[in-house]
Amino acid sequence: MSKFAVLPPWVVLDPLLRGWLQEDIGRGDRTTSTLLLEDATPGTAQWVAKAPGIIAGLRVAARVFQLLNEKVSFVPVAEEGTKCQPGQVIAEIHGSLEALLMGERVALNVAMGLSGIATLTHIYVEQIADLPVQLVDTRKTTPGLRLLEKYATAVGGAINHRMGLDDAVMIKDNHIAAAGGIAAAITRIRAHIPYPLTIEVETESLEQVKTALDHQADIIMLDNMPVEMMREAVQLIRQQDSRVKIEASGNVTLQTIRAVAETGVDYISSSAPITQSKWLDLSMKMR
User: Fold this and answer.
1) What is the pLDDT of residue 34?
2) SS3 of 63-128
3) How would you classify the pairing of strands 219-223 and 245-249?
4) Which of 158, 176, 197, 279 could disulfide-link to 153, CB 3.0 to 4.6 Å?
5) What is the pTM of this model?
6) How far apart are CA 159 and CA 154, in angstroms?
7) Which of 282, 287, 286 is nearest to 57 (CA)?
8) Element (H, E) at 44
9) Which residues are annotated as a binding site?
């Protein structure tokens, strides 16, 4: 698993998981509660992959079951961040049959969604793995799921861009328009932000790149630039200030990411691994 993939602590995640369980269980699991005479009835199940992909979210899935019954044992057979194949056993689960049946859907939903993101992220990363550039995610995430979706991109081999608006300063086109230009935006913001926040500026032309350089932006984003213009911008930035990091963004696809990476940028940001991912099909089978 990528060294960048760090799961938030349970004190942060538990309220999310409890909310999802409450949504699914409602006033009670009518089927399970009437089927089982005792909540201590033991059960054993396996998680099985039904499609190839990268596994993510197993610890979160385990926590779902353990919130229902702390004695449930969820043993991963496949390691987080590794490839799975159809028919492969992903995990073995032992414990209260009631907890297994009641938590099945929520746990699977979480793992299937996160594994889908990790899988598509990995495909993107493979396209540029031999080049000195890194794929980063964006803030285009499902409301309420950002921490976990960004965890999944890291499992797939990307690194996280800012988690929220308080992580760093990113001056985008609408900010530039509101301020009356890049120079005014950087000058005004630098006078008020706390140390050590960095300033990133979104640029769409070589003229904007020059202005961002003149006003000592820490990171310059080349947004929706043609590849040739992007290459010129990279050369300009490297010649004037080698400390500045360069990010490419905008309409990055599996077909274009290689050409973008070859321009010499440091980072390529894309929302696609999250917004265009397909859930990885997993199922739970009682034994």
Assistant:
1) 87
2) HHHHHHCCCCEEEECCCCCCEECCCCEEEEEEEEHHHHHHHHHHHHHHHHHHHHHHHHHHHHHHHC
3) parallel
4) 158
5) 0.96
6) 5
7) 282
8) strand 42-49
9) 105, 138-140, 162, 172, 202, 223, 249-251, 270-272
Return d(Cα 80, Cα 55) in angstroms, integer. Answer: 5
Quote the CA–CA distance of 83 and 62 in Å, as a whole number.
19
Model confidence pLDDT, tens digit, residues 61-70: 999 999 999 9
Backbone angles phi and psi of 237, in degrees to 5: -65, -45
Consecutive H or E run containing 268: strand 267-269
Residues taking part in catalysis:
105, 140, 172, 202, 223
Dist. CA 217–CA 198, nearest whole Å: 8
Give binding residues for substrate as ranges.
105, 138-140, 162, 172, 202, 223, 249-251, 270-272
Question: Over the stretch 212-270, which tens digit does the pLDDT of each residue have?
Answer: 999 999 999 999 999 999 999 999 999 999 999 999 999 899 999 999 999 999 999 99
In angstroms, the Cα distances linking 127 to 122, 265, 268, 285 are 9, 15, 12, 35
